[in-house]
Amino acid sequence: MKHRLSHLNFNDIEIPEINIHSFEMGDYLLEVDYNDHKGYVFDDQDNIVKFKNVSQVKEALNECRVKSAYLVHQSAYDEMCGGAEGGSNELKIELNFKH
Predict the structure, then answer these.
(1) Which residues pair with 94 in a beta bridge?
(2) Beta-strand (E) ranges in 43-89?
(3) Beta-carbon neighbour count of residue 78 at 10 Å?
(4) 68-82: per-residue pLDDT in tens?
(5) Is 73 helix (H, G, I), strand (E, B) or coil?
(6) How many Cα atoms are found within 13 Å in the side-chain-facing hemisphere of 1?
(7) Residues 31, 51: Cα–Cα separation, whole Å
(8) What is the pTM of this model?
(9) What is the pLDDT of residues 27-85, one digit of tens each?
(10) Which residue stretches of 21-83 are H helix?
């Protein structure tokens, strides 16, 4: 499911949860749970929206209400060090997303 950034940022929109995924090369991708559908955020040209920091995400969603926000990071540490496979290396940190 894709969400359009241009359809989300209105003051009558309440988003139950967002996940800001820390991605390679310093990019952050925004995953939104809205209308019972989880999906990444795309622009009107059907390109996934990439952010350079969490503040840019806050600015992009400055009109709508976000109930819960998380920063999500997938670590490759175990893989690089020969650790056990199959476990989750996901770190999920709750953020204060109040405007």
Answers:
(1) 70
(2) 50-51, 65-74
(3) 14
(4) 999 999 866 555 455
(5) strand
(6) 10
(7) 12
(8) 0.84
(9) 999 999 999 999 999 999 999 999 999 999 999 999 999 999 999 998 665 554 555 56
(10) 54-60, 77-81
